[in-house]
Design a protein that fits this description.
By secondary structure, this protein is an all-alpha fold. It has one domain. Helices cover 77% and strands 0% of the residues. The protein contains 16 helices and no strands. Helix 7 runs antiparallel to helix 8 and helix 9 packs across helix 12. 31% of the residues are buried.
């Protein structure tokens, strides 16, 4: 945000549009593999994480394409001037310089899909690769930076594990008290068709995403919804993508979306400006969500090759 926002303002996009773009586009990362949210869903729902990663590729590209189309349309409407024509030589030189960094996601995905490592092991290899590249290729990383990053990572991991432990306890309490069974019975009594059930779930998840971070939302809600999903006849892999996209949208949906307040702190922009800025992007992503929800093949077609 700190890097992109000043450039957007300088090019004439305006504070409202720029803050909305930065706040909303940052949420897509949990849809594009490799995604921690999908790993958590896979563990909670007992589904294949590699399949979830593959299933998220086309929906993620769809969201990115629709966002890009909206940005281009708004740029033309606002009369934003281009910063210069496309220079193939500059593009190739820049791509070559960024090659070692760009290879890291390839390393992660290839090691997982080829069966050489688990997602956790791939993450460890990626960390080691990033340290080596930053220290010996780009020469911008100091050993002190590695130590500080390790401390911050340990603190973040401890927070996540605390959430995981609490969510597991919460799920156990719900299960012992028959809450999932009661919820299943209630929904079964409504005799909802799969499309109607998905509408209800989308509404619930969009609201929940405004209040809970992705980790908490997935760990708490997945054990509740997945049994119902299986009964209704919805593919759990497809539902995992729907759930992830919902939570991603909730992260920047007013009034309590987490990304909104992060953007407020980082960009130093009034909340009202960010609220107004994210609404069009929320509408674009909700439209993409509807396509993803009711076109399951978009999520599942690539998984059939696994």
């Amino acid at each position: 945000g700190k890097v992109l926002y000043p450039g957007l303002i300088r090019d004439g996009y305006g504070a409202r549009f720029s803050s909305g773009l930065v706040s909303s586009s940052g949420a897509i990362d949990i849809v594009i593999p490799p995604s921690i949210a999908m790993i958590l869903y896979g563990a909670s729902a007992e589904q294949s994480v590699p399949k979830l990663f593959v299933a998220g590729i086309l929906p993620g590209l769809l969201i990115a394409a629709m966002m890009a189309a909206y940005v281009v349309a708004m740029a033309l409407r606002m009369g934003v001037k281009t910063s210069g024509g496309f220079n193939l030589t500059h593009f190739l030189r820049t791509t070559w310089d960024a090659g070692p960094a760009l290879f890291m996601p390839v390393l992660i995905l290839a090691s997982i899909y080829l069966g050489l490592s688990s997602p956790t092991e791939a993450g460890g290899f990626a960390c080691l690769y990033a340290i080596l590249v930053g220290r010996f290729v780009y020469r911008t990383l100091r050993w002190n930076d590695v130590f500080e990053a390790a401390i911050r990572s340990a603190m973040l991991t401890a927070q996540i594990l605390a959430i995981v432990a609490t969510a597991a306890l919460f799920s156990w309490i719900l299960t012992v008290n028959g809450v999932p069974q009661a919820l299943v019975s209630a929904l079964q009594s409504l005799r909802l068709e799969p499309w109607a059930f998905l509408i209800l779930v989308n509404i619930i998840l969009l609201i929940v995403g405004c209040f809970l971070d992705p980790t908490s939302a997935i760990l708490v809600l997945t054990p509740l919804f997945v049994p119902i999903v299986k009964i209704v006849g919805i593919d759990p892999i497809h539902f995992g993508i729907v759930m992830t996209v919902n939570i991603a949208i909730g992260m920047f949906t007013p009034p309590f979306g987490l990304n909104i307040f992060v953007a407020r702190l980082v960009l130093r922009v009034p909340l009202e400006t960010i609220y107004r800025g994210v609404l069009p992007f929320a509408a674009v992503q909700i439209l993409a969500l509807l396509i993803i929800t009711y076109w399951p093949e978009l999520s599942l077609i690539l998984t059939r090759a696994l």
